[in-house]
Amino acid sequence: MIVIKTVLITGAARGIGRAVATAFAQNGCSVILNYNNSEAEAHKLATQLSEKYNTNCVAVKADVSDPIEVKAMFEQAGAVDVLVNNAGVSSQKLFTDITDEDWRTTVGVNLDGVFFCCREALGKMISKKSGVIINISSMWGEVGASCEVHYSASKAGVIGLTKALAKEVAPSGIRVNCISPGVIMTDMMAGFDEVTLSELKEETPLNRLGTPEDIASAAVFLASDEASFITGQILGVNGGFII
After folding, report:
1. What is the number of other CB atoms lying within 10 angstroms of the CB of residue 143?
2. DSSP letter string, 169-185
3. 78, 117, 156, 175: which could join 141 in a potential S-S bond, CB 3.0 to 4.6 Å?
4. 7 near 33, Cβ under 8 Å?
5. Residues 179, 217: contact at Cβ < 8 Å?
6. Kind and range of the H or E run holding 100
7. Rounded Cα–Cα distance for residues 179 and 86 (Å)
8. Could you say which of 35, 74, 140, 151 is catalytic?
9. Are 78 and 128 in contact (CB under 8 A)?
10. pLDDT tens digit sequence for 41-58
11. Is 0.90 topped by the overall pTM?
């Protein structure tokens, strides 16, 4: 359990973000669900969570790769106690096929978005001398993935940002940590056939693929007082896929 807080989650309409939003609502938090394209899903989820858990949940549109839209989102949201930078995009391509647009889009959402959101959230967190930032990276940001150089690079950047920012804002009472998911069954896995999924399962020592709820549980823990002495850490939630 965590003390009631206001939580802003980027990319909260689907997949991991949806599970994270649900988990915080279950704990009585006010939840701001950021979305960019999934408007109907985000507003429907906000209504469902508000009614089911008797808490305040709202959906707010913003492209996290756009600093102007991010600023407007935080002006609408007000002060937040917890920021979960979850929004992300991915694609599989040979390095020689990655276009300038592919690179800019991937880095723009996955890394620039984290920077822009942290910058806006920290203004009020620093003045309050408290706050929690949780960045969602990927195990491919730790070890790299063939045919996903742009994705791996952006997620590695999130890890570096997390470690450096944690050192900088710790004296202000703010904790910054990172969750590094393994193979998680979300829409991003839609392009993989059953054979590939079976192979990935076999490569995972715990012999199963991850769920969005596995990541959500880790996020709630890192936001809780039980994790009050944890900052600058990369928490691998990958079933032992990389150790």
Report:
1. 12
2. HGGGTEEEEEEEE-SB-
3. 156
4. no
5. no
6. helix 100-107
7. 10
8. 151
9. no
10. 999 999 999 999 999 999
11. yes
